[in-house]
Input
Amino acid sequence: MSILTAEQKQIQAEATAFVAKEIIPFAAEFDRTGEFHPYLLDAARESRIFAMAVPKAYGGLEYDALTQAVVLEAWGYGCAGMGTTLAASVLSMDSVLVAGTEAQKRMFFEPMVRGEIGSFGLTEPSAGSDAGNGKSTAVRVGDEYVLNGSKCWITNGSYSTVFVIYALTDPAAGMKGISAFIVEKGTPGFTIGTVDHKLGIRSSNTVELLFKDVHIPAGNLLGKEGEGMKIAMKTLDMARPAIASLSLGLAQRALDECVKHLQRQYPEKAQPGQTLQFKLADMKIEIEAARQLLHHTMNLRDAGLPYSAESAMTKTNAADTAMKVTTQAVQLMGSYGYTSGIAKLMRDAKIMQIYEGTNQIQRLVISRAVLAPARPAVAVQKGGN
Amino acid sequence: MSILLTEEQELIGQSARDFAKEYLEPIAVDMDHTGQYPAAAVRALAEHDFLGLFLQGEYGGAEAGYVSLVEAVENLSRTSAAVASIVVNHSLAAYAIQRWGDPGQKQDCLPALAAGRTLGGFAVFEHGPTPGVGPDALQATRTPEGWALKGTKAYVRNAGVAGLYVVLACTDPAAGAKSLAAFIVGAEASGLAVGPLAETMGLKGCPVADLVFDNVILAETALLGGITDGAAIAAETLALASVAEAAQTVGIGQAAVEHAAAYARTRVQFGRPIATLQAIQTLLAETATDCHLARLGLRAAAQLLDQGEPFQVEAAMVKQFLARTGAKLLIDTVQVEGGFGYSEFMPLPRLFRDIAGTTLLEAPADYPEKTIAARLLA
Amino acid sequence: MPNILVCYKWVLNEQDIKIRPDDLSLDTARAKGKISDFDRNAIEEASLIVEQQGGTVDALSYGTPAVRQSVKDVLSRGPNRLLWIGDPGAEVADAMVIANVLAAAVRKAGPYDLILCGEGSSDMFYQQIPARLAALLGLPCVTFVQKLTLEGGTLLAQRKLGDCTELVSVTGPAVVSVLSEINKPRIPSLKQVLGAAKKPSEELALESLGLAPEDLIPKAVRKSPKGFLMNRKNVVFKESDAAANVAQLVASLAAEGLR
Output
């Protein structure tokens, strides 16, 4: 277990209690119906947890990175689908945190403080791992931009108040011609398309966004024209550990359920044999190691140190761990695992290796860091720490 | 031992593929959505002799052996592993009766099983840590008429649609698991109830439920094999299950790798089909390798069965190998298809959910290791 | 109790054939063999007749030595006996040569009450074999048959023609070619598949058929087959308004020249 401050422990306890009350009892049902239930936003409103990354100056909780990770692990433990709802909303506001003006930050953060959510709109049918290959366009007309195109697999789309949408302001420039925009729900021409039905994280809303001559104020441009991919990459660096957190919650839940089941099955005097015991021990080692890599990454971020490679590593490692641990849990629990909520954990785990940058893309980032020529050590202190 | 198939075995595999295309492809996805038992497809399976593949000719079987069985199961599984599950579990009952039944039992049961007039089920697992131990363990007590059975069998496949079950019960509570005996129980037996259908992650359409025995009276002639043969019957039949389920795993994996390869050829990212990226090639190559090696392993175990040789260790090896790598066949092919691989509008999620049901380790979950180590260290 | 002969061709499965995009030549390296589609209907029809009325079915094929692969497949579908002639020259044989060889085999193995063929093969689709065979054997020929009944020695055939159907009755032996509408071939049961190995099959040597060398020289020579590629336009109509999508589609089709 990581060493948390008293305040962090308190927040962790609150998150755990919230999850036990508002998420765990409903997770199986929402998985079965495959629908996102806005009741969650109502239940979370008072705590302002959807504004956990919003600076205090805007009414948010301004949790540090490690605290956010601890909260998301608790949500992942309860239901990875509902955890995705929270994580994706934080992802969307991360772009505004990175590149937004005062006015833009107010526009985006105030809904979150009110208990509403946002969406990050980068992916398109032609732009999955090739994130810079999107075809959506934003044409400057007077003091507006006109958006055309579509996005797919966008989390929270049907329920978000605010969106960060990436589109080409300069198609000829390819990736360097992408810009980022804030788009508000209800803007004429902006509609929701197909709702995806997924293998897992079914309680998370995943949809297509459609843009047909959508006029937005020029003031909604984040940063400068052409800076879109730079903003997206910085955002994803910040957001990847969130997926690691959800993955950890999933893996821990799978191990806990496995242990509970074995304890129920084995009469008091008997014990599972060494083969099974060691499988549990290995699961524990992997989870704990993944947790430490995540917390170390969060420590780096909180200390203002570079953490891009670690961000990729923890996302990859935790997602792979979740997949392995949940799969093993289902197997070890046999038909019980296959016919109970444990199966949901395995289905939920699979997406962790895919979204917010597939683990193959992460490995590209990591191998670049590994193979880069060694740099001389540089003192990073700039201003206060 | 040859790793090559005989022409007959190849033709049986081809027939199973043709059958699957004709009868299973139209229903596979719907069956997964509704969980409805595919009665018409099972009738067609019976008409095509899939339900008596290894049963002797004098009982109406095709006498085609166990390599034929796994070839058929693999090929059916490429299209619908759920239907293949029905065949596999039926085959376990048929195997047990052919192997340990006396002439009367074989004559009474096998022709109906071979013709598919009666579907079979095999009830060995319980909710406790091992059959024969736990509050719900199925107990068989001697009575003047024969036997009285009381307790619960868990997660029985084909429950509710089977006409007969081969059931493992404990005859001496003090001796627990060591006193297991096998019984043939007709589905109509008074006091026998089928519990509610379990909601499975995949393989939907193959019913799974508990069998509850409330003082079910059986004649003496219901005892299958000797009174102390139960553990051996369970072990050997479950070894056959390991081999047959491995064939399901491999069939599902093969379908997945072919679909993912076809997807990779057409999906363009970074200006080229992703099939040209080594990352994708590696995922597909590892999947294909694991699939291929598992296929050879399970075929080798099936060949031993065909030759009348002991096969339980080889069966345990295949089980152990696929416990490590089986689910990975779909974890990695879904990965190739990315977001599309995660969408239930595409085929792989069903295969992902199905394959997880073919590599389960029932309690006690360490029996593959124990079985193999026992031979190595004898 | 009729004595029926079914002629069939063992062809490459067209689904396995790939077209090389640069020169449209065919890559058949991965193509497996199969019974030509309409011949499958012919075999099924023969089996159905004999199941109802008794009798026997012989199957006959002339092709490259690869025909050997077809033996068990065909025998699992009903025929009692299979005769086949494997000859590398079959690769370039035209319809005349094929008919010559088949007729010679029929003279050796027959006579038959009924000779069934598919209307044309999946690969070449000459549609000439039935007529040529009938002419060589001095038998009547009934083509495009979609329904067939055999009563005593009389054949009643329903022919599907361009603009009508025609009912034809024939007494005595005849050559009949069938369309796929005539039946839906059943998938052999596993016992039938296993039983195929026990049925007799015989390879007839080409030299033993009494053909003159000129009977085997093709007059129609195939140059080289080329594939036909259909390209997709990849135009997507995805407005949120369905009526707008339809309007755009119609406009696009009209622009392409469709009315």
